[in-house]
Amino acid sequence: MKLSLFSLGAEETLAIKESQVAIENAFHQILDEPYKFTNFTNEKLFLTELSTAVARDSMIVAAAEPQYFKAFKSFICNAFQLKCKPSKTITGLIQFVHPEATDDFIEDQANIPTGATPLVTQDGLYSGFGIKAKNQLLIVLPLDDKRIDYVINNSLMQFVRENMDMSILTADPLTGMEVEDSPLAKQNVRRNGELYDSQLVASTVKKLMDRGLTVALANTKTVDFIGNISTTAIDLSGVFYVSGYSIEKGEMSAREFAINLAKGALINSKNSIGATITKVFSLPDENGKQQFFMYACIADKENANVAKLTAEDDETPPQLIYRAVEELFRMLNVWADTGYAVPQESNVVVVRPSIGNKKSEAFLNKIRIATGAIIAAGSVASVIISLVVNNVYGVL
Questions:
Q1: What does the pLDDT read at residue 169?
Q2: Based on the number of CB atoms within 10 Å of its own CB, is 340 exposed (0-12), middle (13-18) or buried (19 or more)?
Q3: H or E element: which one contains 7?
Q4: Is residue 352 part of a domain?
Q5: Residue 136 is part of which domain span?
Q6: Same structural domain, 38 and 91
Q7: Which CB contacts under 8 angstroms, 24+ apart, belong to 315-318?
Q8: How does pLDDT run across 219-228, given as a tens digit for each residue?
Q9: Which of 142, 144, 202, 367 fits a 20 to 30 Å CA distance from 25?
Q10: What is the pLDDT of residues 7-19, one digit of tens each?
Q11: pTM above 0.70, yes or no
Q12: 295 φ, ψ to 5°?
């Protein structure tokens, strides 16, 4: 497996670097070794390296900051000779979130190659795409620190896992664990008459109690569902404590919101781990039908494990909530054994670490390349790359 991460267009601001680190961490969770971005401010050098990567690598990720992203998508599509059209998914999402947007603006934002998978942001703006040709993936992403987490957890990792040969990816961390008699082995079994796996909940609570571990729950609208389990089925007192910590979502992505809730609950308590299940969110799919989803999260002071739960066909919001509760207990069960709040079963990503760059944003925000230069480069017949690309992407 070989992955190339390329970015083009500007100096590395703190926001850009954080976005790059989030993407790097995402791929590090499923690949055998860490990969780092190579940054370019010269489009010709970028194309030269891109052509080399096309001939060599299984996966290519190209990224640019929001200021240049529309032009960058055009630049990449021209270089790869890909025909584009507006994505219905991206179009519908932008229309829903930004009803004031003009048709021309939406079309520019929604344009992706024919046959590509949209990698959508929470509001549709600066959405990327992924496309497969033979055994190679081309992925285009925005370096947008306010949107990249949503893209990673809602579409990017799913796209990669669905389209790459999984035999070349890192093995599941649970491989080799004796779980046949454990509640973990039953996670995908549909239970008759039960909204959640009571055996899993009871086993987890006992394990936490035996090890003297306690959980701080963020005070969300759905926390009462856990309370209902405690009062009607399995006594959670002495293990679970509802924290007074609560925040507004504001501009945070749903994933970031879940992480902050869990971390906040822990920091404002004396418990061993922080946890949360969010409220139920909804977004329209490409047919305009509302799709329900929510997050379960546990967090220690350094890391977080986040799982996104999406409603199945005909699944009601309460049923989805109980499934999120079950996922929360599943994560706690593994954490009680390992001591690490990192992804063990869920296809999710560890929260990105602090960058630690103290240079001022004003100093870092010096732009080296104009939008016009990218557009101009994108309109040129890319001889450097086209000879290689035709052999790989000519099947599209």
A1: 46
A2: middle
A3: strand 3-8
A4: no
A5: 3-170+364-393
A6: yes
A7: 317/280, 317/292, 318/195, 318/225
A8: 888 888 888 8
A9: 367
A10: 987 567 888 888 9
A11: no
A12: -125, 145
